[in-house]
Amino acid sequence: MIPELGQFALILAMLLAGLQAFFGILGPAQKSDRWMAAVTPAVSGQFVMIATSMACLVASFVANDFSVAYVAENSNSALPLFYRVAAVWGSHSGSLILWIFLLACWSLAAAFGTSRLPKPFASRVLGVLGLISFGFLLYTLATSNPFLRLDPPWPDGQDLNPILQDPGLAGHPPILYTGYVGLAVAFAFAGAAMLEGRLDRDWARWTRPWTTAAWAFLTCGIALGSWWAYYTLGWGGFWFWDPVENASFMPWLMATALIHSLAVTEKRGLFKSWTLLLAVLAFSLSLVGTFLVRSGVLVSVHSFAASPTRGTFILAFLIVMIGGALALYAWRAPLLKSEAGFELTARESFLLFNNILLVTACATVFAGTMAPLISSALGLGKLSVGPPYFNPTFLLSVLPLLALLSVGIHSRWKRGNLGDRARGIILTLIVAAVIGCAIVFGLFTGGRVLSPIGVGLGVWIILSSLIDPIDRLRRHITIPRAVLGMTVAHIGLGLFVISITSVEAFTAESDVALAQGATTQLGAYEFRFEGVKPIEGPNYSGVGGTVIVTRHGAPVGVMHPEKREYWVQHTVTTASSIRMYRTSNILIALGQDLGGGRWSLRLQIRPLVSFIWLAAFIMAAGGMLAIADRRYRSARVEAPAVSPIGAVTRSEAG
Amino acid sequence: MNRFTIPLVAFALLVVVLAVGIRQSPDKDLIPSPLIGKPAPDFSLPSLTDPGQRVSSTQLRGHWFIFNVWGTWCYACREEHPMLLKIRQAGVIPVIGLDWKDDRGDALSFLKDEGDPYQSIAVDHDGSEAIMWGVYGAPESFLVDPQGIVVSKFIGPITEEQWRQQILPRLTMSAGAGSAAGSS
Amino acid sequence: MMAYRRYLLVAALAASLLLWALPAQAIAPEQMPTPQLEARYLALIHGFRCMQCQDESLADSPVNLAADMRREVRDMLLAGKSDEQIRDFMVSRYGYFILFKPPFVLKTAWLWLTPGILLLVGVIVALTVIRKRAALAATDLEDDDLTDA
Question: Model ipTM?
């Protein structure tokens, strides 16, 4: 009964999405107020239907309804309730429902958020969103229906993949998808602008908060994924340049470029076609990422159950949405001209380089990710591309970007006036360089040439970001939330750079074989292995090891790495033990039973690794802070930000 | 074409690549073997049936043979087994087995129960021979010509279609050439 | 009865897929006699892709095949082979696919050159735009005082 209700709700949702698209796009074209008035109810209706459908799926999982194929494939009666709910998006079909649900949430938010904007524009935005919803609902119902029944039902389910039985499953996909899907709003804003044939500074101001919000969620989602991989896979890695990881990183790079480009468009009406293109490309990359993960064209441990049918369908959808948007772009973008100028050292100039370098970085990741596909499509043989390719080529674009940030942040709009700030720039550079070298060569030995550069760049970014706020505080000028948010986000970035450099340069690891009672040393730490004993969990059993960790003799803690065998799927997972001690992470993973009480263990000391994710969350927080700025309250740009000729006053006091 | 159509054109190229990718995707896990066209590795390994004897590549020089990597732990190998028996029945090409990281007792009883399609079976106890052939899963089979060159590699169970379209034609071709040379 | 059989079939298929992989644990401390060899060993096994779990390196993969291949690498190192010879050994049997770092040969040149070329093009585009805009700014006599962010 409930699964049928869920499926029926999906069908209704699809119809409502179709209506939303129809009225949203054709209403303004026909200048019909009645049609435009129908859009928001369609959005609300669609949301209710999808929420119902989602609820039905969750209910089926909670109730252990193994007559539903999807539940039977991804759950089990011994699975704890928490994971039974999270299992809803544990595999392809359910994750699509999550995707669609989040799109409905964003659409509803957009409906309310655009209610004070001009009706034709708002209708078009929602119309485009409706088109996307329709496509995904059609795809789901046609190829990936999660409500399909098994007749007769299975006595019990196959259980959720043990690697997914982790709190990370509850957090990472929903938050990541919120970001992914949120970029659709920016896409819709771009689409509406192109349909109208108009793009002005107001448009940029309307689009900014939505984009920044999606960007913040995407930042958190990627960070959570990385963190989850770190403590779940057991080998201490947190980024593998895996195609699926890249699929989420590329939209992030585009979205970062977009939020900066929007700033220029809002401020000076420049970069209009750039911004438009970025808005289209950011969500397009989200869609391409969805394709890559579900079509089976790429080798990846993350990819969902793939099939050529699903792949073909998504490809058709891509052609319609992305092809359509880019065709609109080719048609409308030439109309967007502006006559404003700026100097070489102006803020616009730095932001232009920011755009270019981020897009280049994104294109680099894209090339590497698609290379195996391109190579075999062109008959050039089977290629494999891994970190040894991505790391140097990515840094090629990103290192200059990080350096430019620290200089550009001081630059004024239009005229640059860097000369005024030259002293500050040079001072921060020197301090950063000194700290970089001191930390790297003083506290640690070894490291590579990039280590002082990495740390130096990170420190420079933090110092440079602080100069203007501190200056404002000293002069008792209020710092607008937008500036505060920007500062926080950039500081987060600096911290991120420092942490990653530190982890890459100073990680110590070793694989050892230890008998019970034996000790080994790694770095400044001693590890004493106390043997293993059997353990049992709600749906698994295995062995748990005990390791006593000390540092220079002083106790640090007792750690318990485990090896678990899940009863239903008979898979063995390594639950490594991770402990944070004074900014470093200690990681211990159980390896192999070598017989006679001896076990092999992997030990790792990773300095500052937790700061990587902390930094990412700080970046996201900065973004959310910036959105809260008062300027986004009103629908129109207020008094011009340009003061009359000759006056050199600080116009904005708060 | 102005610069604003560049993204659209680039996207069109991408679609072509993705479409080809979808078409090729069932094969995406099949790594083409670099051994094709090169001499097969020489080997001399203990025989499964009689550990005192050895199965070696020198014994096989001068004939076509199929080198089949299998193990009793491998589900797909059991699926392939009837096909191998068929090949044995056809009697035109011997199948040499490589029992890969298997238990001798299990292997012998499997062959007793299900039938033995092999002319001889070499034992790879520690996996090093399989690595010499670039094997990364079972079953995998290699078609080797009388000069000892690897002609083709089959990943996964040999299918009826592969037997008819890829293996048999080469045998008859070479037999035809051989008889033509012999008769002159 | 039907359902039970189908369930058994699915379970058997799943189990056999797992049997096929036959996991051995990934951490096998095949420690080398000298630190230099140890460093070379670690570098090599991190640079090879596991052919069965194709997303993991030889160092991290838990399957039996990876353990065998690590052993081969170890034996070759102890026999005095150079890093290049060991890589060639693997590539000649498994193809370039086994390397995480795509080689720089004619077939892969496009991949390695693309980032640099894109960067160059990007910088040229940026400078071109800036030149045009700077010219506009030079003729613009307004002395604006725009606020930041």
Answer: 0.83
Residues of C in contact with A76 (CB under 8 A): none
Distance of CA A566 to the CA centre of its chain: 30
For chain A, where do the domains classified as CATH 2.60.98 start and end? Answer: 508-609
Size of interface B-C (CB pairs under 8 A): 58
Architecture of domain C20-101: Orthogonal Bundle (1.10)
**Domain ranges in chain B?**
35-183
* Minimal CA separation from B50 to chain C, in Å: 25
| Contact check, Cβ <8 Å, B128/C68 | yes
Chain C positions in Cβ-Cβ contact with residue B134 (cut-off 8 Å): 93-95
Q: pLDDT tier at A262 (50, 70, 90 boundaries)?
A: very high
User: Per residue in A86-113, pLDDT tens?
Assistant: 888 888 888 899 999 999 999 999 999 9
pLDDT tens for each residue of A63-86: 988 889 888 888 888 888 888 888
Name the stretches of chain B with pLDDT < 70: 1, 25-31, 174-184
The alpha carbon of residue A316 is apart from the nearest alpha carbon of chain B, in Å, by 9
- Residue A112: CB partners within 8 Å, gap ≥ 6? none
A389, A398, A648: best mutation site toward chain C, by most C Cβ within 10 Å? A389
CA nearest to A589 within chain C: C27
Q: Within 13 A of C124's CA, how many CA atoms are on the CB side?
A: 6
Cβ(A267)–Cβ(C145) under 8 Å? no
CATH entry, B35-183, from 3.40.50.10540, 3.40.30.10, 3.40.50.720, 3.20.20.60: 3.40.30.10
Instruction: Find the distance separating the first CA and the last CA of chain A, reported in whole Å.
Output: 57
Residue closest to A114 by CA, chosen among A27, A212, A629, A106? A106
What CATH number was assigned to the domain covering residues A508-609?
A: 2.60.98
Residue with tokens 């990359």: A285
For residues A84 and A14, which has the higher predicted lDDT (pLDDT)? Answer: A14
In chain C, residues with a C-beta closer than 8 Å to the C-beta of B32 are: 95
Of C18, C25, C101, the CB nearest to A389: C101
Q: Residues near A412 by Cβ (< 8 Å), separated by ≥ 6? A: A346, A347, C146, C148
Considering only CB atoms, C3 lies closest to which of A155, A571, A589, namely: A155
What pTM did the predictor assign? 0.85
* Residues of chain A positioned with their CB less than 8 A from the CB of C93: none
**Smallest Cβ distance to A486: which of C47, C146, C149?**
C149
